[in-house]
Model the fold of this input.
Amino acid sequence: MDWGTDLWDQYDVIDKHTQSGLDLVDRYIKFVKERTEVEQNYAKQLRNLSKKYAKRGSKDEQDCKFSNHASFQEILNELNDYAGQRELIAENMTTSICVELTKYLQDLKHERKTHLSDTKKAQQTLESSFKQLESTKKRFAKEWAEAEKATQQAEKTEHDPNATKPDVEKVKLHVHMRKHTAEECRTDYAAQHQKYNKDQKYFYYTEIPQILNKLQDMDERRIRRLAEGYCQFSDIEKNVLPIISKCLEGISAAGAKIDEKQDSMLFIEQHKSGFERPGDVDFEDFTQGIKSASSDSSLHPPKVRTKLWPFSKKHKISHAEKHMTHAAEDFSHLPPEQRKKRLQGKIDDINKELQKEQDQSDALVKMKGVYEQNPQLGDPSSLEPQIAETGQNLGRLKGELAKYETWLSEAVGGEETSNTINNNNQHGIVAADPIQNIYTEFDDEFDDIETPVGQCSALYSFEGNSEGTISITEGELLSIMEEDKGDGWMRVLRANGDEGYIPSSYVKHTP
Done:
């Protein structure tokens, strides 16, 4: 069964039906577009929510040492990755469904217009043939009537006694001409009649069925392509479900690894003062009588009660006391345990600054050596102010380091001094001669090449369809050129030299 055989006389119905099919494709495209807007808005709101509740500041960083605080931060990070997957769904739906179906719809409209135009041309051709038939028929009828009228007139003339022989010959000749003309019209009419029947048969049995079958094929292809679009609507989301599942598993794992006992112990370590509990209060017996005034009172002054249980209201501190408290650079105003922690933290910070300055100093000295070897690259003397300033910073930091190490030694009774010094040596704080081996570490020329910041491997395959992205395959090793800056994307370099952005959640970092 096909349209050309069974629906040969339902052209108007077919016209409306095919137009309805195209309208459905257009409706589906608009539906998917609105779905992508929902996904994009949802992802944006998730990112804003994650950013809103993310910890910031030194106090928050201190809290994140506790497992329950750190787990909440991991949940926010996983939620941010989850938002990236929703954005990926929206992007893939736009590319694979909206863009592709829109192009396909335009092709269908053009094809349908062509078939309808062919139908109209065929109808016009048949109508033109029918008009020719009618025209020859009318002419034949007219000429035959004229011939009949001329015959009757000739018969009347022949029976007229007053008619002369020339008159009779004349009317006979006229009858003959009329009959000949009528016979020619009859021949034209017969030929046109045969031609029209042939055209009509071709129109209804060949031409129109072919066009209607083409429209049927077009409509069936539209239905199949639309069905694929329906499946894509689901498959696109299914493709990211493994990543979404990992995000949700990460959230569950963050909750499962909370250790309340560890958090309690960490809180104790952070805030224990190291003071001993107050001893018993001595009993003072006033029934012994009043002793004679003597110098004993000056030798044995009354005992002053030490600080009691610390859960009392904080007394107000004057501005001068505050200034003195903040001015205690050695943290001597703090309890013993807290003082040691603060001093050790200060030493660690100075070590980091010292290492940074040392690296900068080494780089400047090496650059100066290169400039001396290759004057065309730059003037060595232009680096002298920076080298001098770096040297001053190194001297200042070393002085501060020695000062805080002395205070720490006093706080711990010399127990940790050796460890601190050893740690400093391990970090390479002691500056070596910067001029040594300069020329062996630098080539004659600099290559301005961006170095990777890490390595990673692909957990899943990714099709980079949009501008700026690249495709990767599962298990592929990649070089990280730019870490994720909070938007869910990172820039990587493939082994074949391709470079672009991929979703951060599609890879895992490797050592």
Q: What stands out?
A: DSSP finds twelve helices and five strands in the chain.
